[in-house]
Task: structure prediction
Amino acid sequence: MIKYERLNTEKAKAAEKSLEKAKALNKSYNTPEVNAALAEMFRGKCYICENKEGISSFQIEHLKPHKGDAELKYDWRNLFWSCAHCNNIKNAKYDPILDCTKVDVDKKIAFRKEGYFGKDEKLQFIPLGEGEEIKNTIALLYEAYYGSTPQKKVEAANIRKALRRSLSDFKNLVREYYEAEEYEKEDIRCLIHKELGQGSSFVAFKRWLIWDNKEKYGELFP
Ligand SMILES: [Zn+2]
Result:
């Protein structure tokens, strides 16, 4: 989970307008405008698990569960973009969590993948501060990446598989950078910066790979 800016783009303005209208008519907040603006803002990624490949269903997620409250239900600032797996897990169960449109979540929680194979592999979410929001966010992350019901465990295993692949590609890129000739380095550095940017999948883990090895790889962080 990382921070995204809730910018006043054309798509965001259209989304707010459509929400106003939906609220007045007591219609669904699930409008094409809202979907387009959320996909743009969250770069086509689930804000909770940071997966973007092979997701069959995206859903509109209310950061603060609306429980029928019209203000929260149609509030653009309360709407987030998540995969069905994570939306279903979060539901109204984890509240409050960190608001990733206001807070640098990856500065409040360290994201690490330890080990390589099978049972040795372990994801870790380490709190870097105190408070209920951090605690709830970490509990939500563990459930999103590991599941609790038999079905959710299968879905979570698929997310971890995508995470493993994405991190492995990223590590290869970093290796390539250090093995490259001077004249090739700039191109590879651009690719690495893209991988560390908002639009790439599982960015929190990639950033922490660099931050945990600051002395060795610090120059790669934009
Ligand atoms: Zn997700």
